[in-house]
Design goal:
This protein is of the alpha+beta class. It is built from 7 helices and 17 strands.
């Protein structure tokens, strides 16, 4: 009996030992599985390599830049056809250059070559006249990739030659390194003569001869008005031009300098039509009549001729700009005799058409205590005063 008990105890001991061994083996296997899973989770996924910087040349087309005012494209060049015409874009790059070109006027004497400006983030970095057919201008240079708004603007008037933008060249790693800037919520067109062109605005006195080096659209009442209202602008302006007569030295009619026949063109020197439907405006400002007054003088029949011509031009401007508010003005350099006939033209136009979205006001004449520019044209002080008054007029009509 005792031997039997001893045998049973031995068997129990052996069974427990075997069970313990199996449990330890399972623990080891389980720990191995956990360790293996942890090692798999700890694997680091490498990010793809950053794009390498590359040199890229971009054409100044509407896909890449915003076209300001009247421009036209010819042989891969975007030409800045009017005072204030510009191309504007936002670039992402370490380095950027703009290639500009000129027409035959680059051969003119230095004071009569086309004047232009290059702006970066709204600041003028270059203000010069173009003296060569092609010129490359560095606009951005940075160790790190930078965002900047670049603009090239025509400062002098189209009659004295224009500047073209041929290409923008960048060093960049960005996927979309050149994009147009956004259009502004308000658009204003300015139709005018030398006052709108800012003829002689930087001249020291009335006796200083005309030069493109003293003509600066950025000091025109038109540009200043657009800036104050946060508006886009477009221009159709030519020194010496009028409604029924251009500037006349002897009182005879000057039919070679009439604005209505060239209003539908990008510019009078470039026989290309302007697409009004693609460029609608909220406001159109007409500042014409100063040169007509050298023909009308105090002759009543001629002043009525001006009145009829003005009303006819208003009708054409309305056809081209069906949704715009028309604002007519005169007086900065005109003695006041012709303004009542402008007022009558506006009233006749309203009566004949039922159009109520048109108004007029008399611009304040030059205060010569403020000084003046070439040929008694408004200087920067007078241009700013004219802008201040026009800003209030436009705010009033837009609120009506």
């Amino acid at each position: 009996m005792g031997k039997t008990r001893n045998l049973i105890a031995l068997l129990l001991t052996l069974s427990l030992t075997a069970l313990t061994a199996c449990g330890r083996q399972e623990d080891v296997e389980t720990e191995g599985e956990i360790t293996s899973a942890t090692e798999e989770q700890a694997v680091v996924v490498e990010e793809p390599a950053a794009p390498e910087p590359r040199e890229l040349t971009v054409a100044p087309t509407e896909e890449n830049v915003r076209l300001v005012s009247r421009t036209f494209e010819e042989d891969g060049v975007t030409w800045l056809a009017q005072s204030g015409s510009a191309v504007e874009c936002e670039v992402t790059a370490t380095h950027a250059q703009v290639q500009i070109v000129g027409d035959g006027t680059v051969e003119n004497e230095p004071s009569l070559r086309p004047r232009f400006a290059v702006l970066v983030d709204g600041e003028v970095i270059l203000d010069d006249t173009l003296s060569e057919r092609e010129r490359t201008i560095e606009v951005l240079s940075s160790e790190e990739e930078t965002n900047a708004v670049i603009e090239v603007m025509q400062l002098s008037e189209t009659n004295r030659g224009i500047v073209g933008v041929k290409a923008i060249t960048l060093t960049t790693a960005a996927e979309n390194p050149v994009v147009p800037t956004e259009a502004k919520p308000l658009s204003i067109e300015f139709i005018g003569d030398s006052i709108t062109c800012a003829y002689g605005v930087e001249a020291a006195s009335a006796y200083e001869p005309f030069a493109t080096t003293t003509e600066n659209f950025m000091k025109s009442y038109a540009y200043l008005t657009a800036q104050a209202l946060g508006a886009d602008y477009s221009t159709a302006c030519y020194s010496g031009y009028g409604i029924v007569s251009g500037w006349s030295a002897d009182g005879s009619r000057n039919e070679s300098m009439l604005l209505p026949p060239v209003y539908d063109l990008v510019a009078n020197e470039h026989d290309q039509p302007w697409d009004f439907a693609a460029h609608p405006h909220d406001v159109v400002v007409i500042n014409l009549g100063t040169n007509d007054s050298t023909y009308t003088l105090m002759n009543e029949s001629r002043m009525w001729e001006f009145c009829q011509g003005y009303a006819s031009f208003l009708a054409h401007v309305r056809t081209c700009n069906p949704d715009a508010y028309l604002v007519c003005t005169l007086g900065t350099m005109e003695g006041g005799e012709l303004y009542p006939y402008l007022e009558q033209a506006v009233e006749d136009f309203k009566a004949n058409t039922g159009d109520t979205r048109v108004t007029c006001y008399r611009s304040d004449p030059i205060d010569f205590a403020d000084g003046c520019g070439t040929g008694e044209h408004p200087n920067a002080t007078t241009q700013q005063k004219s802008a201040d008054k026009l800003v209030e007029v436009i705010r009033t009509v837009l609120a009506s």
